[in-house]
Specification:
mainly alpha, 9% strand
């Protein structure tokens, strides 16, 4: 199965709300990365700080990606996501992080962290979706 067929099969077995959520996160990440690149080119902050923020955001995004528990819905034959107890705890910590970072960090690092966080969430969710689809021998 080539990559194009794999993507097509994946989409038909993923809840539409989850697909839309991943698209929104991807768009936000792209916009933030463009803003970060612009700020670096303008000399507002260093490329090292931008990279550090993006990598930090990737770590945060990977952890926050756990907020939604992914499961296989046999009735609909697709992967669905819901927030469980651990997800609620992670959501609360994530909200505290969001509000605290604005107070302690500058705009440059906030843009970088946000871009990295969105990318991390997308990558983490995609990884978990593929794990489920492989376990059910769909991919």
């Amino acid at each position: 199965m080539d990559k194009k067929d794999e993507i097509s099969v994946s989409r038909q077995h993923i809840d539409s709300k989850m697909i839309n959520r991943l698209r929104i996160y991807t768009v936000i990440a792209i916009v933030m990365l463009i803003l970060v690149a612009y700020e670096v080119l303008q000399g507002t902050f260093s490329i090292q700080l931008a990279i550090l923020g993006i990598f930090g955001g990737l770590i945060v995004g990977s952890i926050v990606g756990r907020m939604y528990r992914l499961d296989w819905d046999e009735d609909n034959s697709n992967v669905t996501g819901y927030i469980d107890g651990i997800g609620v705890f992670i959501l609360i910590i994530y909200l505290i992080f969001i509000f605290a970072r604005a107070h302690y960090l500058g705009l440059a690092i906030i843009l970088s962290i946000t871009a990295g966080t969105m990318m991390g969430r997308v990558m983490s969710t995609r990884h978990n979706i593929n794990k489920i689809l492989r376990a059910w021998k769909i991919l």
